[in-house]
Design brief:
This protein has 12 helices and 11 strands. It is an alpha/beta fold. Strands 1-3-2-4-6-5-10-11-9-7-8 form an 11-stranded mixed beta sheet, with helices on both faces. Strand 10 and strand 11 form a beta hairpin. Helix 8 packs across helix 9. The longest helix is centred in the middle third of the chain and has 23 residues.
Length: 425
């Protein structure tokens, strides 16, 4: 998509969708001739542009330099068309934001439904065709959740592949940066551009997208969690999941219904404790200074980490290492693990219960266990809302995750479908 077309669509549809907090007209382009268009989650620095972080008081009013991931995209010829909405401080899975507002899930023009969080605006922008791709961050599912409920691809790498320099943290031991796009190939190519060593936390890579996208997956052996091992799942989502497994078998893979040594949901609470404890250490001073201007639910989640001691964090990390070792050993017998991405479709925003986080119930495990993962659209519910198939790979094996996602996409029957935006014009 050329930048002029992206800007025209943004002007036409984003007044109601509210995917963007800031639009660049003209787009921010690198030294190379402008190529595809991308949006950047407003948790990631762009030089000279306030990083809002979903807050009324910006996290950085005037960043001195681009985040490494932004600089690499510009050097590769991508054009940045704007910065997208996020849950405040990226701390929430619904996509709500009582500080600066929440985007509108584009699959329902009549009811304001949850866009998924925390990379809410990035998913909405991609789903609505306002850009070719977008960057998001993922600490407990924040790329995969909004990708799932907005009907796009959300690709989360394992840690150490993509730079976090210039990306504001939530929980440094869990944070990753990933890509959202309408198709697997575009997401994979964005990951290839932003990956590679940065003389800091990124020590791997770069990722070879073309090798992954052309890999033969026939004969690969996958594990899929049976429905009765997933906890409560919406009936439509469960039906679409089982249909997705049948279609996936058509790509030549073998799928065993299998139960991991620990359920995905067992990672939910310890992952949440790390988010609270590390989040308070990162943002406790901000709560003290600006708490009255913040979303009260974000303040409540951060304050839950105030009483998490260093000893408690150390114990969680010890248990995490043990859990990772056991899970990785089990998963080594397979090429990937399959599950629904989210157990429910997007609810009306007015019905959201901020005391629970069901959208992240099956996604947090990838962060806690440090596994690469992707959400790929796998159909629409009876209400016309997207569901996603989650593919989790072995540690550091983003190539297999992408290869399998591309293979599933070809047989999924999704065929690039998109929401009807006539109600948003």
């Amino acid at each position: 998509m050329i930048p002029d077309d992206a800007l025209a669509r943004i002007r036409r549809y984003d007044g109601r969708l509210k995917a963007f907090v800031r639009v660049f007209d003209p787009p921010l382009a690198g030294e190379v001739e402008a190529g595809p268009t991308i949006a950047i989650k407003d948790l990631i620095d762009i030089a000279g542009v306030p990083t809002g972080g979903g807050a009324r008081v910006p996290l950085d009013r005037n960043p001195a330099r681009h985040a490494v991931v932004v600089q690499r995209l510009l050097q590769a010829g991508w054009s940045v068309v704007g910065k997208t909405h996020t849950v405040e401080l990226a701390y929430g899975g619904w996509g709500t934001n009582r500080a600066v507002g929440a985007p509108w899930n584009p699959w329902d023009a009549k009811i304001h439904r949850a866009p998924g969080g925390s990379s809410s605006g990035s998913a909405v922008a991609v789903a609505a065709g306002l850009c070719d791709a977008a960057l998001g961050s993922d600490t407990g599912g924040s790329v995969r959740i909004p990708a799932c409920v907005c009907g796009v691809v959300g690709l989360k790498p394992g840690r150490g592949l993509v730079s976090l320099t210039g990306v504001h943290p939530l929980a440094p031991s869990l944070d990753t940066v990933g890509a959202l796009a309408r198709d697997v190939a575009t997401a994979a190519r964005v990951l290839a551009i932003i990956s590679g060593p940065d003389h800091a936390a990124a020590i791997r890579g770069p990722f070879d997208a073309e090798s992954a996208l052309t890999a033969d997956v026939r004969g690969r052996r996958l594990a899929a969690i049976p429905l009765d091992g997933l906890g409560e799942v919406d009936p439509d989502v469960g039906r679409l999941y089982l249909e997705a497994l049948d279609r996936f078998r058509g790509a030549g893979v073998t799928i065993d219904m299998a139960r991991p040594p620990h359920t995905l949901e067992e990672s939910f609470t310890p992952n949440g404790l790390l988010m609270a404890g590390e989040g308070w250490r990162a943002w406790g001073d901000r709560v003290a200074a600006h708490g009255e201007l913040m979303d009260p639910w974000i303040v409540r989640r951060l304050e839950a980490g105030r009483d998490v001691s260093e000893a408690s964090l150390a114990e969680v990390h010890r248990q995490r290492a043990q859990g990772q070792a056991a899970f990785h050993t089990w998963l080594a017998g397979y090429d990937a693990l399959l599950s629904p991405t989210c157990p429910i479709p997007a609810p009306p925003l007015a019905a959201v219960d901020e005391t629970v986080s069901p959208l992240s119930r099956l996604t947090r495990a990838a962060n806690y266990l440090d596994l690469p993962g992707v959400s790929v659209p796998c159909g629409l519910t009876s209400e016309g809302l997207p569901a996603g198939l989650q593919i989790l790979g072995n540690p550091r094996d983003e190539e297999t995750v992408v290869a399998l996602a591309a293979a599933f996409e070809r047989v999924s029957g999704w065929d690039g479908r998109a929401p009807d935006l006539s109600g948003f014009a």
